[in-house]
Amino acid sequence: MGQGPTGATFFATTPIYYVNDAPHIGHAYTTVAADVLTRWHRQRGDDVFFLTGTDEHGQKVLRTAEANGVAPRVWCDRLVQTAWKPVLATIDAANDDFIRTTEERHTRGVQELWQRIRDNGDVYPSTYEGPYCVGCEEFKLPGDLIEVDGVQVCPIHSRPVEQLSEQNYFFRLSAYADRLLAHYEEHPDAVQPASARNEVISFIKQGLVDISMSRSSFDWGIPVPWDDGHVVYVWFDALVNYASAVGLGTDPERFAQRWPADVHLVGKDILRFHAVYWPAMLMAAGLEPPRRVFAHGWLLVGGEKMSKSKLTGIAPSQIIDHFGSDAFRWYFLRAIQFGQDGSFSWEDMTARYTSELANGLGNLASRVAAMVGRYCDGVLPSASDVGRAEEDVAAALIDTVATADEAMGELRFHDGLAAIYEFVTVVNGYLTVQEPWQVAKRFDTDPSARARVDTTLYTAAEGLRALAVLLAPVLPKAAAELWASLGASAALGGLAGQRVQDAGRWGQLSPGATVTKGAALFPRLEDPPAPSA
Ligand code: MSP
């Protein structure tokens, strides 16, 4: 893989999703965040690799397949083809790869990693006796469960755990506590946000116990390389996807180029797997841990984590059919602080759609194109009368780019989008003050009126030019339409080639370009929203 113009590489992942059911907006939330982040890095010119995929082994998927009367592989193929791959198009994700844990390349990666760990002496046979939650696919520790009516219940799934007694291989996790603590000491940003970091550190400080790395009571999984009477425990199979997708076990050269991952985006429910077990596995195999794990919050329904098992899952298409994919992407990253829990409501989404996208950005774009049409015959005028007001807009843009770029790089999407939206407000405010529609009435009487209107419209169009670049990662469809409407390609080339770092350089649009007023970027919502979930 070649290097982008910045010379920087950027490898980001989503969790791989269980195929026991179809995606809901909680899953889409992680994928959208990763997509916006990676599109932002592409827009910076980085050589990006964005990975997502599906987690297909283990008891949870096996039982679902059995309940549906089909072989697990048939079930997985069906769900991947009809639900998990299509949802990526629905939410407009531009992933570079989609890994399935049932693929040969993944099997080879998993077997390579576990063989290395065993060769290093960190695997031994033993018996696991204790609780297991199939919903979490997790060996539960004493502090993990709650008691309801005398029964030990998983607090995430509100279901009783199962008691296992199984001959397994164990991973010597206990040997890695000190190395993990030293690693996090040395790399304070390796787990974010701070609440997640604190949780991880205190979990490690409580002491780590060795953990089963295999299962022997069913065979839906990847055979343990030294004993085919066992399959690799599903989490210790799934986590390896991040490495097998970039060549572990199949293409050492590529692996060396891409590893370690720059960031694993995960929901806070699976933090321990990513920030404790996974780095320990990598260390045990002599490989580097990921550079960063970012744990985001949950989408809540009625104060609880949205989930299909609790029948609170909303399919992304239920929202996107009504608002469009751009608005979906905008809403979830703008309305919820990344790292915190948040709730979705039709009312809130409708309000933001209307005020920010339809009336804010959409109206600005259509007003400017309409005025260039009306007052300048659709030809972008030049700015010959630049004064303080125009300089203020240009200066505000420089701040916007710096603030947004920093925030997006730190996964503070809400801050990044707030900064960009603030600039929409600046340009709208500039037009309100300049009132080109009033000045245009004086074309016949005031010799300076023409230059004022031209300058105003050029300035607003330049603002939109920069907005198209900054918004392309989050609103890819609207940004592309905006770019086309400004006729920017003729002089500047395609939107994908515009760099975030250059977006603040004022005066890039070429006077003389053909500006066209297309359809509204965000049409007014006419239908009543679909019924709430
Ligand atoms: N298969 C494991 C992950 C293995 S990664 C090596 C898994 N899969 S999952 O299908 O349950 O999806 C988990 C991820 O989906 C969460 O970590 C989170 O990113 C996302 N979400 C699922 N429900 C969610 C919410 N209600 N809210 C926000 N994100 C949610 O765990």
Overview of this protein structure:
By secondary structure, this protein is α/β, with parallel strands linked by helices. The chain is built from 19 helices and 19 strands. The chain has a domain at 346-502: Isoleucyl-tRNA Synthetase, Domain 1, CATH 1.10.730.10. The protein has helices spanning 25-43, 59-67, 72-90, 104-119, 177-186, 194-205, 234-238, 241-244, 252-258, 271-284, 316-323, 325-335, 346-376, 388-409, 413-434, 436-439, 449-471, 476-485, 489-492; strands at 9-18, 47-55, 97-100, 123-133, 138-139, 146-148, 151-154, 159-160, 162-171, 191-192, 211-212, 214-215, 223-224, 227-232, 263-267, 293-296, 299-301, 304-305, 342-343. The strands form five sheets. It has a six-stranded parallel beta sheet, with helices on both faces. It has a four-stranded antiparallel beta sheet with strand order 5-4-9-11. Strand 6 and strand 7 (151-154) form a beta hairpin. The site of 5'-O-[(L-methionyl)-sulphamoyl]adenosine (MSP) has 20 residues, from strand 1, helix 1 and strand 15.
